[in-house]
Amino acid sequence: MPEGPSIVILKEEAAAFAGRTVLRVRGNSREPIQRMAGCRVLALRSWGKHFLVEFEGFSLRIHLLLFGSYRIDERRATEPRVGLDFGDGGELNFYACSVKFVEGPLDAAYDWSADVMNDAWDPAQARRKLRMQPLALAADALLDQNVFAGVGNIIKNEVLHRIRVHPESRIGGLPPRKLGELVEQAREYSFDFLRWKRAYVLRQHFQVHTRTVCPRDGQRLGYRKHLGLARRRAFFCEQCQRLYPFG
User: Fold this and answer.
1) pTM for this predicted structure
2) Quick one: CATH architecture of 4-110?
3) According to the CATH classification, is domain 113-236 in 1.10.405.10?
4) Boundaries of each Formamidopyrimidine-DNA glycosylase catalytic domain copy (predicted)?
5) Smallest Cα–Cα separation from 19: which of 86, 73, 113, 116?
6) What is the mean pLDDT of each run of 10 residues along the chain (247 residues)?
């Protein structure tokens, strides 16, 4: 599943479509996608894992889910979920994704301060939200899009290893300093992810995600196929990532 930094890259790659008018709409989505025909793109935005094409009065929301993809100025052999053709021959195609419409202004629908990639990101608000769920596992808390919009499983695993916190630690058991590190690194690692992905070296920087040995102490990494409420894969070191219980 693409994480927030990958959606920022999509937004950058599609930036040239801002200000242009949709000539035709194609696709097999059950949503009323033809409503976009003849409409002018006001802006291209992202919130967490959502890619947003803003029009007058409404926006197209794309979520790439687990296996979604996109093509700019080219097509795959299969029919897209939604494809936008522009007057000068340019096109934007999305496959195997969720297609929804957001009615009204995006500023009324989205809390930009919850997006770890956004300039409006508010770490103090994230800490307040975390304190309200003391029993949550650290692994689940990092994947909570209401707290850390854009954080996905790779970022989760790498952040917890970076701050030496076991994924099954309870949020209420984390010392204030560790809670602060979790919030800080959720954003900092996301921008590291963005920088590495732009340079096509992201996987080279994985410390624990899909790895078998901890680079810090040489211990074999722990692995859970379905950890926490989110039921996502977890890679972690039992030696250097401390388990913080609560209560």
Assistant:
1) 0.93
2) Alpha-Beta Barrel (3.20)
3) no
4) 2-93
5) 86
6) 92 96 97 97 97 98 95 95 92 97 97 97 97 97 97 97 98 97 98 97 96 95 93 96 92
